[in-house]
Amino acid sequence: MINGIVIYNEEDVSKNKAYIDWLIVEGKARNLNIKLELDKDIDELNYDYKFAINRSRNFDLTYRLEEKGIRVFNKYKFAVLGNDKLKAYDYIESVNINYPKIYKTLNKINREKKIIEKPKNGHGGNNIRIVEDFNNLDFNKNVYQDYIEAYIGDIRFYIINNKVEHAVIRIPKKDSLISNFTKGGSVEIYNYSNKEKEIINKILKDIKIDFGGIDFLLLKNGEILFNEFEDAVGSRMLSHLGINDTMEKFLDHIVNEIKGGKEDER
């Protein structure tokens, strides 16, 4: 058996128990001995494992593990992009992909517009709001961007080993800013176009995603705008739609990497 760990922060363990158990069982079928560890305990371990699946969203931890020669899924570069929205937008701008206008200082904001505030490291649709008071904005902790009036919903592309495996669209409830499935948004399979696939491939040219998500905003005119990366991507929406193959594909990818598959150094 090949020893590995899956890492969570403590508050996320209970709500992800079914996924963790599924990961461990399917891992054993592939000769992978995967043990659950909490992110707060990692520095006390003896590092007698070959790989780590870091779902704690702590990219500093990923960096420390990689420094010890441990293969981490996902790698540090994508873990950063998936947990720091400003760095994600900087990367997206470098590959010339469209995204909503972002404001990095107060004097750039047009106060006549609707502005959305969301945490720089947020996930799950938590703490997203329309700005009402411009006197107490925190540009160190939050991202401020234009509200998109022509917004229909969010498209999520599920990526395994830098390949699009599935795509879904999430539609928010009426008068809601948030399309997240766990917040009441509806979800259905999204049939993406060749043009949209080309956009994804352009994004993937300079990063490696072992298993993650790329989210876009879909507008009424058919245009898509990059929204964010998802490092610790979930599978609830896919399971809801009867799609349950991402676990096996991800674990097969891990086996290939650990057993000597040619690894991309990006």
UniProtKB/TrEMBL annotation:
Descriptive protein name: ATP-grasp domain-containing protein
Top-level taxon: Bacteria
Domain ATP-grasp fold RimK-type: 81-244
Pfam families: RimK
Entries under InterPro entries matching the protein: ATP-grasp_RimK-type
